[in-house]
Prior knowledge:
This protein has 447 residues and is mainly alpha-helical. The chain has helices spanning 3-12, 28-35, 38-51, 56-73, 79-84, 94-100, 106-118, 123-127, 135-143, 151-158, 163-175, 183-195, 199-212, 215-227, 230-239, 243-260, 264-275, 281-297, 300-309, 315-330, 334-344, 351-362, 368-379, 386-391, 398-410, 426-439. The chain starts with a helix and ends in an 8-residue tail after the last helix.
Amino acid sequence: MSEKVRAGWHFAGMTAVLAIVAGCGGSPAMRAAEHGDWAALRARIADAHRTGKLTNAEATDLARKVARREITTAPANRAVARVRDVGGCARELDGVLASRMDTHDDAGAEAAWMRIDSGELGLGSARSYTGDTTDAWRAVGARGLSRKKDTQARLAAMGDGSPRVRRAAMRASAEADPDDATDAEVELLATVARVDPEGIVRSDAVRALASIGGEKVVGKLRDLWTNGDDGVREAIAVAWSSPRVYAHGGAAPLRLLVAAEHGPGAIEAASAAARRKEIDPGIRSSAVALLARTIVSGSRRDRLHAMSIAPLAEPDIVEAFRKAAKDGSRGSDREMEIAAQSRLLGSGPDRAAAIQVLEVRAGEDTGRMAVNARSALASVGHLRIQAWIERDLTAQDAWVRLQAAASLGALGRAARGAPLLADADPEVRTRAACTLIMASRIKSTNR
């Protein structure tokens, strides 16, 4: 028997489920995804799961097809949202995003912005839209104004009537060569940080100033701190430890901040300072103390904030997590307990005990706290909770369903989240597709 005939017999004997393989665009599942026949796709995936033969690679190919369809067929009032839904996997979907740019609307501009961030669209190409008549595309153009020769155009964009364009100009300023920054740019950024009507633009202006750095910038930041709102102060607090600010006078206000302040800005500043070994030991010590103190006895909001960003490498912070975990348990504050135990998964001596506690919490109910516990366990590859996570795929809460897809990806079982590719909610379909695509970047066990 020839090898060709033998291969033909083998193919004829394969099940329909295995026809979902990469590149097999004519398979029933692929056709269902391509035509948006979600009922048929749901049935095909269910068949594959019953036989246990849908691999991660096959699910990823299916996810690509679903994502492409959602981006290209979204109604006008949801088109921008659908493009944003694939932000995490923009590089893998660059072809469809490039095609979406051909439609000169807000969604096309969003696709262009994502391609810039993924490195697939060059700033030179972006600059060609600087003079566009629409805000969204003019923002794409402003995003590319990072060269020295673009300084005047960048400053003009900072005063544009559209907040989107102004934000893009701030981003371009932050990414420009700081040694090319002029006094005029520093002055204008400081003015924007003080008076722009949009809070996010004011904070972006502070971040741009921090990237420029130098003594003059430090002076401007000190002035802005006096009358700045919470958002601006938080951005300034982080700026004090940035290299070009810290080295030119930022150390003194950073020292005072972590020694005497509290709240979101101080927490962010302390986390940044505690992570940088080049920061003065005395400042780092105060930063660690602030974080540990906040984790144990701050306001509930501040405790959760500090828990999410505090570096685990510091012994005092690890001890604070241990105390917070016990206090949360005794006080029946499940969110606090789960947040602390989730971080203790990263501490070798505490990991086994944290897994035990989180297993109990993960199995208690179907609420969001249990989902958080399951997600934490999935992040460390704890396969014993896979069945609970798969149960979440049918939850009424869309957030819970999407968390399940992400957790299955973390476990190396991304294909088990494939039912969400046929979800009734287009946002869930698109985000789940992106989750499966992102999971494919990591070598995982097919199941």
